[in-house]
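Here is an idea for our session: we take a single protein and study its fold together. To get us started, please write out a protein record for me. Once you have written the record down, we can walk along the chain together.
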Amino acid sequence: MFESRYVAWTSTGVSVCFISYLLYDKFFKKKNDYVTESERNAEKLTKKEVLELRRKFFCDAQSISYENSNPLFATKAKGQYIYDSDGTEYLDTRNNVGHVGWQNPIVLSAIQRQLSKVNSNSRYIHNFRVLLAKKLTETMPKKLCRVFFVNSGSEANDLAIRLATTHTGKQDMIVVDHAYHGHTVATLEVSPYKYEHAGGSGKASHIHKVPCPDTYRGLYRGVNAAIKYADHVKRVCDEVVKQRSNVEGGVAAFFVESGMSVGGVIIPPKGYLQNCYQHVHKCGGICIADEVQVGFGRFGEVYWGFELDGVIPDIVTIGKPFGNGFPLAAVVTTNEISKSFANGLEYFNTFGGNPVACAAGIAVMDVIETGKMQRHASKVGSFLKEKLLALSKKEVGNKIGNVRGKGLFLGIEFVNDRQTLEPATKLTSLLCSRLKDRHNILTSIDGPHNNVIVIKPPLCFSQDNARYLVKKIEFELQSITDADIIDNFTHTAT
Protein backbone atom coordinates (compact mmCIF):
# COMPACT_ATOMS: atom_id res chain seq x y z
CA MET A 1 0.00 0.00 0.00
CA PHE A 2 2.69 2.48 0.96
CA GLU A 3 5.50 3.19 -1.49
CA SER A 4 9.00 2.55 -0.18
CA ARG A 5 10.26 6.03 -0.87
CA TYR A 6 7.78 7.36 1.68
CA VAL A 7 9.13 5.28 4.51
CA ALA A 8 10.92 7.27 7.20
CA TRP A 9 13.93 5.75 8.99
CA THR A 10 14.28 6.44 12.71
CA SER A 11 16.86 5.50 15.35
CA THR A 12 14.59 2.77 16.61
CA GLY A 13 13.89 1.18 13.30
CA VAL A 14 11.47 1.86 10.53
CA SER A 15 8.30 3.90 10.85
CA VAL A 16 5.87 4.17 8.00
CA CYS A 17 4.80 7.63 6.85
CA PHE A 18 1.44 8.61 8.21
CA ILE A 19 -0.12 8.91 4.77
CA SER A 20 1.34 7.57 1.57
CA TYR A 21 1.85 9.82 -1.40
CA LEU A 22 -1.01 8.08 -3.22
CA LEU A 23 -3.43 8.56 -0.36
CA TYR A 24 -2.23 12.12 0.15
CA ASP A 25 -2.83 12.95 -3.50
CA LYS A 26 -6.32 11.46 -3.35
CA PHE A 27 -7.10 13.16 -0.04
CA PHE A 28 -6.24 16.63 -1.30
CA LYS A 29 -7.73 16.20 -4.75
CA LYS A 30 -10.51 18.62 -3.92
CA LYS A 31 -8.86 21.97 -3.40
CA ASN A 32 -9.59 23.86 -0.20
CA ASP A 33 -11.71 21.03 1.18
CA TYR A 34 -9.49 20.45 4.18
CA VAL A 35 -9.33 23.22 6.76
CA THR A 36 -7.42 22.78 10.02
CA GLU A 37 -8.88 23.67 13.38
CA SER A 38 -6.22 26.38 13.75
CA GLU A 39 -7.36 27.97 10.49
CA ARG A 40 -10.98 27.93 11.66
CA ASN A 41 -9.98 29.53 14.95
CA ALA A 42 -7.93 32.18 13.16
CA GLU A 43 -10.90 33.17 11.01
CA LYS A 44 -13.01 33.72 14.15
CA LEU A 45 -10.61 36.27 15.69
CA THR A 46 -11.91 39.82 15.89
CA LYS A 47 -9.77 42.91 15.22
CA LYS A 48 -9.68 43.61 18.96
CA GLU A 49 -8.48 40.08 19.72
CA VAL A 50 -5.79 40.25 17.00
CA LEU A 51 -4.48 43.53 18.44
CA GLU A 52 -4.42 42.05 21.95
CA LEU A 53 -2.48 39.00 20.78
CA ARG A 54 -0.11 41.23 18.83
CA ARG A 55 0.65 43.33 21.92
CA LYS A 56 1.20 40.15 23.90
CA PHE A 57 3.56 38.31 21.54
CA PHE A 58 5.26 40.89 19.32
CA CYS A 59 8.05 43.30 20.10
CA ASP A 60 7.03 46.97 20.19
CA ALA A 61 9.74 47.66 17.60
CA GLN A 62 7.52 45.99 14.99
CA SER A 63 5.39 48.96 14.01
CA ILE A 64 2.15 48.94 12.03
CA SER A 65 0.43 51.62 9.96
CA TYR A 66 -2.26 53.72 11.65
CA GLU A 67 -1.16 52.27 14.99
CA ASN A 68 -2.41 55.27 16.97
CA SER A 69 -5.80 55.44 15.32
CA ASN A 70 -7.50 52.48 13.69
CA PRO A 71 -5.14 49.81 12.33
CA LEU A 72 -6.24 48.01 9.20
CA PHE A 73 -7.11 44.33 9.62
CA ALA A 74 -6.44 43.33 6.03
CA THR A 75 -8.28 40.12 5.20
CA LYS A 76 -8.51 40.36 1.42
CA ALA A 77 -7.05 42.31 -1.48
CA LYS A 78 -7.77 42.61 -5.18
CA GLY A 79 -6.24 44.87 -7.80
CA GLN A 80 -5.61 48.26 -6.21
CA TYR A 81 -7.95 47.63 -3.27
CA ILE A 82 -7.48 46.15 0.19
CA TYR A 83 -10.41 45.01 2.37
CA ASP A 84 -10.75 45.25 6.13
CA SER A 85 -12.25 42.45 8.24
CA ASP A 86 -15.62 44.23 8.16
CA GLY A 87 -15.60 44.25 4.35
CA THR A 88 -14.68 47.93 3.95
CA GLU A 89 -12.88 48.61 0.67
CA TYR A 90 -9.77 50.80 0.74
CA LEU A 91 -8.01 52.33 -2.24
CA ASP A 92 -4.33 51.38 -1.94
CA THR A 93 -1.97 54.18 -2.99
CA ARG A 94 1.01 53.01 -0.96
CA ASN A 95 1.87 49.37 -1.59
CA ASN A 96 4.28 48.82 -4.45
CA VAL A 97 4.54 45.19 -3.30
CA GLY A 98 1.33 44.24 -5.12
CA HIS A 99 3.02 45.52 -8.25
CA VAL A 100 0.69 44.21 -10.98
CA GLY A 101 -2.36 44.24 -8.72
CA TRP A 102 -3.18 42.32 -5.57
CA GLN A 103 -4.20 38.74 -6.29
CA ASN A 104 -3.47 39.19 -9.96
CA PRO A 105 -5.10 36.07 -11.45
CA ILE A 106 -2.18 35.29 -13.79
CA VAL A 107 0.39 35.52 -11.00
CA LEU A 108 -1.87 33.70 -8.56
CA SER A 109 -2.47 30.84 -10.99
CA ALA A 110 1.26 30.48 -11.65
CA ILE A 111 1.94 30.27 -7.91
CA GLN A 112 -0.84 27.73 -7.33
CA ARG A 113 0.27 25.48 -10.19
CA GLN A 114 3.87 25.37 -9.06
CA LEU A 115 2.93 25.03 -5.40
CA SER A 116 1.04 21.86 -6.24
CA LYS A 117 4.21 20.37 -7.76
CA VAL A 118 7.29 21.25 -5.73
CA ASN A 119 8.18 24.33 -3.67
CA SER A 120 11.64 23.41 -2.44
CA ASN A 121 14.78 24.71 -4.04
CA SER A 122 17.36 22.87 -1.98
CA ARG A 123 20.40 22.20 -4.18
CA TYR A 124 18.64 20.96 -7.28
CA ILE A 125 18.13 22.61 -10.63
CA HIS A 126 14.80 23.92 -11.87
CA ASN A 127 13.58 25.28 -15.21
CA PHE A 128 11.79 28.32 -13.72
CA ARG A 129 14.91 29.40 -11.88
CA VAL A 130 17.09 29.61 -15.00
CA LEU A 131 14.31 31.05 -17.17
CA LEU A 132 13.69 33.83 -14.66
CA ALA A 133 17.40 34.66 -14.57
CA LYS A 134 17.41 34.84 -18.38
CA LYS A 135 14.28 36.97 -18.46
CA LEU A 136 15.63 39.34 -15.80
CA THR A 137 19.02 39.91 -17.42
CA GLU A 138 17.36 40.58 -20.79
CA THR A 139 15.89 43.77 -19.30
CA MET A 140 19.34 45.06 -18.29
CA PRO A 141 22.56 46.15 -20.01
CA LYS A 142 24.58 43.16 -21.31
CA LYS A 143 27.26 43.75 -18.70
CA LEU A 144 24.80 42.77 -15.96
CA CYS A 145 24.52 39.05 -16.59
CA ARG A 146 24.99 37.14 -13.32
CA VAL A 147 22.08 36.55 -10.95
CA PHE A 148 21.63 35.64 -7.29
CA PHE A 149 18.08 34.97 -6.08
CA VAL A 150 17.23 35.85 -2.50
CA ASN A 151 14.06 36.51 -0.48
CA SER A 152 13.91 40.23 0.26
CA GLY A 153 15.36 43.61 -0.60
CA SER A 154 17.28 43.65 2.69
CA GLU A 155 18.83 40.30 1.85
CA ALA A 156 19.69 41.50 -1.66
CA ASN A 157 21.42 44.62 -0.36
CA ASP A 158 23.24 42.61 2.28
CA LEU A 159 24.62 40.34 -0.43
CA ALA A 160 25.52 43.36 -2.58
CA ILE A 161 27.73 44.63 0.25
CA ARG A 162 29.47 41.24 0.43
CA LEU A 163 30.02 41.24 -3.33
CA ALA A 164 31.45 44.76 -3.26
CA THR A 165 33.85 44.22 -0.37
CA THR A 166 34.98 40.83 -1.69
CA HIS A 167 35.62 42.17 -5.19
CA THR A 168 37.44 45.35 -4.19
CA GLY A 169 39.12 44.09 -1.02
CA LYS A 170 37.98 47.35 0.59
CA GLN A 171 35.43 48.20 3.28
CA ASP A 172 34.53 51.89 3.00
CA MET A 173 31.02 52.59 1.72
CA ILE A 174 29.63 55.90 0.48
CA VAL A 175 25.93 56.30 1.26
CA VAL A 176 23.29 58.97 0.75
CA ASP A 177 21.74 60.88 3.64
CA HIS A 178 18.36 59.50 4.79
CA ALA A 179 18.75 56.40 2.64
CA TYR A 180 17.27 53.07 3.68
CA HIS A 181 18.70 49.78 2.38
CA GLY A 182 17.41 47.17 4.82
CA HIS A 183 17.16 45.76 8.33
CA THR A 184 20.12 43.38 8.55
CA VAL A 185 23.24 44.30 10.51
CA ALA A 186 25.15 45.14 7.33
CA THR A 187 22.33 47.08 5.66
CA LEU A 188 21.56 49.08 8.80
CA GLU A 189 25.16 50.29 8.68
CA VAL A 190 24.58 51.79 5.21
CA SER A 191 21.18 53.27 6.10
CA PRO A 192 21.39 56.76 7.65
CA TYR A 193 17.59 56.66 7.97
CA LYS A 194 18.14 54.01 10.65
CA TYR A 195 21.56 54.49 12.23
CA GLU A 196 21.08 58.25 12.84
CA HIS A 197 17.71 57.99 14.53
CA ALA A 198 16.25 56.70 17.79
CA GLY A 199 17.81 53.37 18.74
CA GLY A 200 20.44 53.63 16.01
CA SER A 201 24.08 52.89 16.74
CA GLY A 202 25.42 55.91 14.86
CA LYS A 203 27.69 56.00 11.83
CA ALA A 204 30.42 53.36 11.63
CA SER A 205 33.94 54.55 10.80
CA HIS A 206 33.91 52.91 7.37
CA ILE A 207 30.65 54.60 6.34
CA HIS A 208 30.81 57.99 4.62
CA LYS A 209 27.62 59.97 4.15
CA VAL A 210 26.94 62.40 1.30
CA PRO A 211 23.97 64.79 0.99
CA CYS A 212 20.72 63.56 -0.46
CA PRO A 213 20.37 65.00 -4.01
CA ASP A 214 17.19 66.86 -3.07
CA THR A 215 16.85 69.87 -5.35
CA TYR A 216 13.81 71.25 -3.48
CA ARG A 217 15.06 71.72 0.10
CA GLY A 218 18.50 70.07 -0.04
CA LEU A 219 22.01 71.50 0.33
CA TYR A 220 22.28 72.35 -3.38
CA ARG A 221 19.44 73.65 -5.56
CA GLY A 222 19.00 75.17 -8.99
CA VAL A 223 20.24 74.20 -12.45
CA ASN A 224 23.72 73.08 -11.35
CA ALA A 225 22.55 71.06 -8.37
CA ALA A 226 23.38 67.67 -9.94
CA ILE A 227 27.02 68.66 -10.54
CA LYS A 228 27.36 70.15 -7.04
CA TYR A 229 26.00 67.01 -5.39
CA ALA A 230 28.28 64.84 -7.54
CA ASP A 231 31.29 67.03 -6.69
CA HIS A 232 30.46 66.47 -3.03
CA VAL A 233 30.68 62.72 -3.65
CA LYS A 234 34.05 63.26 -5.37
CA ARG A 235 35.41 65.16 -2.36
CA VAL A 236 34.34 62.35 -0.04
CA CYS A 237 35.92 59.75 -2.36
CA ASP A 238 39.18 61.70 -2.43
CA GLU A 239 39.17 62.05 1.35
CA VAL A 240 38.61 58.33 1.86
CA VAL A 241 41.49 57.48 -0.48
CA LYS A 242 43.72 59.95 1.36
CA GLN A 243 42.76 58.56 4.78
CA ARG A 244 43.34 54.97 3.73
CA SER A 245 46.55 55.50 1.74
CA ASN A 246 48.76 53.85 4.35
CA VAL A 247 46.38 51.11 5.42
CA GLU A 248 44.24 48.49 3.81
CA GLY A 249 41.03 50.13 2.69
CA GLY A 250 39.54 52.66 0.33
CA VAL A 251 36.24 53.08 -1.49
CA ALA A 252 34.47 49.75 -1.86
CA ALA A 253 31.17 51.04 -3.21
CA PHE A 254 28.78 53.90 -3.70
CA PHE A 255 25.32 52.75 -2.58
CA VAL A 256 22.39 54.74 -3.96
CA GLU A 257 18.66 54.21 -4.47
CA SER A 258 17.43 54.99 -7.96
CA GLY A 259 14.41 56.54 -6.27
CA MET A 260 14.44 57.29 -2.55
CA SER A 261 11.12 56.49 -0.91
CA VAL A 262 11.82 57.08 2.79
CA GLY A 263 13.91 60.03 1.67
CA GLY A 264 10.68 61.63 0.50
CA VAL A 265 10.47 60.60 -3.19
CA ILE A 266 13.83 61.88 -4.34
CA ILE A 267 14.85 60.94 -7.86
CA PRO A 268 18.49 61.88 -8.54
CA PRO A 269 18.66 64.89 -10.90
CA LYS A 270 19.92 64.37 -14.44
CA GLY A 271 23.70 64.00 -14.55
CA TYR A 272 24.10 63.18 -10.86
CA LEU A 273 24.61 59.44 -11.24
CA GLN A 274 26.77 59.82 -14.36
CA ASN A 275 29.25 62.04 -12.56
CA CYS A 276 29.12 60.11 -9.28
CA TYR A 277 29.82 56.82 -11.07
CA GLN A 278 32.87 58.34 -12.78
CA HIS A 279 34.29 59.62 -9.50
CA VAL A 280 33.71 56.32 -7.67
CA HIS A 281 35.19 54.20 -10.46
CA LYS A 282 38.32 56.39 -10.55
CA CYS A 283 38.80 55.59 -6.86
CA GLY A 284 38.58 51.86 -7.52
CA GLY A 285 35.08 51.51 -6.10
CA ILE A 286 31.98 50.02 -7.65
CA CYS A 287 28.46 51.42 -7.94
CA ILE A 288 25.36 49.71 -6.51
CA ALA A 289 21.90 50.66 -7.74
CA ASP A 290 19.17 49.90 -5.20
CA GLU A 291 16.03 49.32 -7.28
CA VAL A 292 14.02 47.69 -4.51
CA GLN A 293 11.40 50.44 -4.41
CA VAL A 294 11.18 51.60 -8.02
CA GLY A 295 12.15 48.76 -10.34
CA PHE A 296 10.03 46.93 -12.90
CA GLY A 297 8.65 49.90 -14.80
CA ARG A 298 7.24 51.96 -11.95
CA PHE A 299 8.76 55.11 -13.41
CA GLY A 300 6.89 54.43 -16.64
CA GLU A 301 9.52 56.02 -18.82
CA VAL A 302 12.09 53.30 -18.04
CA TYR A 303 12.09 49.74 -16.71
CA TRP A 304 14.89 50.41 -14.19
CA GLY A 305 15.43 53.69 -12.41
CA PHE A 306 19.15 53.93 -13.19
CA GLU A 307 18.26 54.14 -16.89
CA LEU A 308 16.98 57.69 -16.36
CA ASP A 309 20.57 58.91 -16.14
CA GLY A 310 22.02 56.57 -18.74
CA VAL A 311 24.35 54.76 -16.33
CA ILE A 312 25.28 51.10 -15.98
CA PRO A 313 25.73 50.00 -12.35
CA ASP A 314 28.11 47.26 -11.29
CA ILE A 315 25.47 45.70 -9.06
CA VAL A 316 21.68 46.03 -9.12
CA THR A 317 19.46 44.97 -6.23
CA ILE A 318 15.74 44.33 -6.66
CA GLY A 319 12.98 43.17 -4.34
CA LYS A 320 9.54 44.38 -3.24
CA PRO A 321 7.52 44.23 -6.49
CA PHE A 322 9.28 41.19 -7.92
CA GLY A 323 6.99 38.47 -6.55
CA ASN A 324 3.81 40.58 -6.27
CA GLY A 325 3.71 39.87 -2.55
CA PHE A 326 5.52 36.53 -2.69
CA PRO A 327 9.05 36.57 -1.15
CA LEU A 328 11.40 37.09 -4.08
CA ALA A 329 14.38 39.37 -4.63
CA ALA A 330 17.59 39.32 -6.60
CA VAL A 331 21.07 40.69 -7.09
CA VAL A 332 22.33 41.14 -10.63
CA THR A 333 26.00 41.81 -11.29
CA THR A 334 28.85 41.45 -13.77
CA ASN A 335 30.99 38.49 -14.78
CA GLU A 336 34.02 40.13 -13.20
CA ILE A 337 32.42 40.63 -9.79
CA SER A 338 30.84 37.19 -9.94
CA LYS A 339 34.24 35.58 -10.54
CA SER A 340 35.76 37.47 -7.61
CA PHE A 341 33.00 36.18 -5.34
CA ALA A 342 33.63 32.57 -6.36
CA ASN A 343 36.70 32.40 -4.13
CA GLY A 344 36.01 29.07 -2.44
CA LEU A 345 33.50 30.33 0.14
CA GLU A 346 30.26 28.77 -1.04
CA TYR A 347 27.11 30.87 -1.31
CA PHE A 348 23.87 28.99 -0.73
CA ASN A 349 20.35 30.21 0.02
CA THR A 350 17.80 27.60 1.08
CA PHE A 351 14.74 29.53 -0.01
CA GLY A 352 16.19 32.06 -2.46
CA GLY A 353 14.86 31.39 -5.93
CA ASN A 354 12.58 28.53 -4.92
CA PRO A 355 10.37 27.28 -7.80
CA VAL A 356 7.18 28.92 -6.51
CA ALA A 357 8.82 32.31 -6.09
CA CYS A 358 10.37 32.02 -9.55
CA ALA A 359 6.98 31.14 -11.03
CA ALA A 360 5.61 34.31 -9.43
CA GLY A 361 8.48 36.40 -10.79
CA ILE A 362 8.08 35.11 -14.34
CA ALA A 363 4.34 35.79 -14.20
CA VAL A 364 4.89 39.33 -12.88
CA MET A 365 7.29 40.15 -15.70
CA ASP A 366 4.92 38.62 -18.26
CA VAL A 367 2.00 40.69 -16.97
CA ILE A 368 4.07 43.89 -17.07
CA GLU A 369 4.85 43.18 -20.72
CA THR A 370 1.56 41.80 -22.04
CA GLY A 371 -0.55 44.20 -20.00
CA LYS A 372 1.54 47.20 -21.13
CA MET A 373 1.73 48.20 -17.48
CA GLN A 374 4.83 50.31 -17.90
CA ARG A 375 3.00 52.49 -20.42
CA HIS A 376 0.00 52.58 -18.09
CA ALA A 377 2.19 53.74 -15.19
CA SER A 378 3.52 56.55 -17.33
CA LYS A 379 0.07 57.66 -18.52
CA VAL A 380 -1.72 57.51 -15.16
CA GLY A 381 1.28 58.88 -13.27
CA SER A 382 1.52 61.90 -15.58
CA PHE A 383 -2.22 62.49 -15.25
CA LEU A 384 -2.06 62.33 -11.45
CA LYS A 385 0.97 64.61 -11.28
CA GLU A 386 -0.77 67.19 -13.47
CA LYS A 387 -3.85 67.11 -11.23
CA LEU A 388 -1.72 67.53 -8.09
CA LEU A 389 0.23 70.41 -9.64
CA ALA A 390 -3.05 72.07 -10.61
CA LEU A 391 -4.26 71.66 -7.01
CA SER A 392 -1.06 73.24 -5.69
CA LYS A 393 -1.83 76.39 -7.70
CA LYS A 394 -5.22 76.85 -6.04
CA GLU A 395 -5.62 78.77 -2.78
CA VAL A 396 -6.75 75.60 -1.02
CA GLY A 397 -3.50 73.93 -2.11
CA ASN A 398 -1.14 76.59 -0.76
CA LYS A 399 0.35 74.10 1.72
CA ILE A 400 1.60 71.93 -1.14
CA GLY A 401 5.21 72.95 -1.48
CA ASN A 402 6.35 70.49 -4.10
CA VAL A 403 4.98 67.72 -6.31
CA ARG A 404 7.67 65.42 -7.71
CA GLY A 405 8.47 61.98 -9.07
CA LYS A 406 7.88 59.93 -12.20
CA GLY A 407 5.23 57.46 -13.26
CA LEU A 408 3.48 55.93 -10.29
CA PHE A 409 6.18 56.99 -7.86
CA LEU A 410 5.13 60.46 -6.72
CA GLY A 411 5.59 62.60 -3.66
CA ILE A 412 3.56 65.53 -2.30
CA GLU A 413 5.59 67.66 0.12
CA PHE A 414 3.55 69.84 2.47
CA VAL A 415 4.95 73.05 3.97
CA ASN A 416 3.56 75.76 6.22
CA ASP A 417 5.38 78.43 4.25
CA ARG A 418 6.59 78.16 0.65
CA GLN A 419 9.34 80.69 1.25
CA THR A 420 10.89 79.22 4.40
CA LEU A 421 9.90 75.62 3.48
CA GLU A 422 8.88 75.00 7.09
CA PRO A 423 7.65 71.38 7.07
CA ALA A 424 3.92 70.91 7.68
CA THR A 425 4.47 67.67 9.57
CA LYS A 426 1.34 67.82 11.73
CA LEU A 427 -0.89 68.69 8.76
CA THR A 428 0.52 65.79 6.75
CA SER A 429 -0.13 63.36 9.61
CA LEU A 430 -3.75 64.48 10.00
CA LEU A 431 -4.35 64.44 6.25
CA CYS A 432 -3.07 60.88 6.02
CA SER A 433 -5.40 59.77 8.86
CA ARG A 434 -8.43 61.52 7.39
CA LEU A 435 -7.87 60.08 3.94
CA LYS A 436 -8.09 56.63 5.49
CA ASP A 437 -10.84 57.17 8.06
CA ARG A 438 -13.14 59.41 6.00
CA HIS A 439 -12.45 58.41 2.40
CA ASN A 440 -11.02 54.87 2.57
CA ILE A 441 -7.71 55.84 0.97
CA LEU A 442 -4.47 54.26 2.22
CA THR A 443 -1.42 56.52 2.03
CA SER A 444 2.04 56.65 3.57
CA ILE A 445 4.27 59.43 4.92
CA ASP A 446 8.03 59.72 4.51
CA GLY A 447 10.83 62.25 4.16
CA PRO A 448 13.28 63.59 6.78
CA HIS A 449 10.52 65.76 8.25
CA ASN A 450 7.64 63.30 7.78
CA ASN A 451 5.84 65.79 5.56
CA VAL A 452 5.77 63.94 2.23
CA ILE A 453 2.85 61.76 1.18
CA VAL A 454 4.32 59.00 -0.97
CA ILE A 455 2.21 57.58 -3.79
CA LYS A 456 3.40 54.19 -5.07
CA PRO A 457 0.29 52.07 -5.75
CA PRO A 458 -0.14 48.83 -7.69
CA LEU A 459 0.39 49.60 -11.38
CA CYS A 460 -3.28 48.89 -12.16
CA PHE A 461 -4.12 52.18 -10.40
CA SER A 462 -6.49 54.04 -12.75
CA GLN A 463 -7.19 57.61 -13.82
CA ASP A 464 -10.48 57.41 -11.92
CA ASN A 465 -8.51 56.41 -8.82
CA ALA A 466 -6.23 59.39 -9.42
CA ARG A 467 -9.19 61.79 -9.71
CA TYR A 468 -10.70 60.42 -6.51
CA LEU A 469 -7.43 60.79 -4.62
CA VAL A 470 -6.89 64.40 -5.69
CA LYS A 471 -10.54 65.27 -5.01
CA LYS A 472 -10.34 63.97 -1.44
CA ILE A 473 -6.97 65.62 -0.77
CA GLU A 474 -8.50 68.92 -1.90
CA PHE A 475 -11.58 68.34 0.26
CA GLU A 476 -9.52 67.70 3.38
CA LEU A 477 -7.14 70.61 2.77
CA GLN A 478 -10.23 72.79 2.62
CA SER A 479 -11.74 71.22 5.74
CA ILE A 480 -8.76 70.93 8.11
CA THR A 481 -8.38 73.81 10.55
CA ASP A 482 -5.50 74.78 12.84
CA ALA A 483 -7.62 73.59 15.76
CA ASP A 484 -8.02 70.17 14.07
CA ILE A 485 -4.25 69.88 13.71
CA ILE A 486 -3.63 70.76 17.37
CA ASP A 487 -6.33 68.35 18.52
CA ASN A 488 -4.98 65.52 16.34
CA PHE A 489 -1.42 66.06 17.52
CA THR A 490 -2.49 66.06 21.16
CA HIS A 491 -4.52 62.89 20.64
CA THR A 492 -1.79 60.94 18.84
CA ALA A 493 0.90 62.12 21.26
CA THR A 494 -0.99 60.69 24.21
Notes: The chain has 16 helices and 18 strands. The chain has a mean pLDDT of 91. The radius of gyration is 24 Å. The CA atoms of residues 413 and 452 lie 4 Å apart.
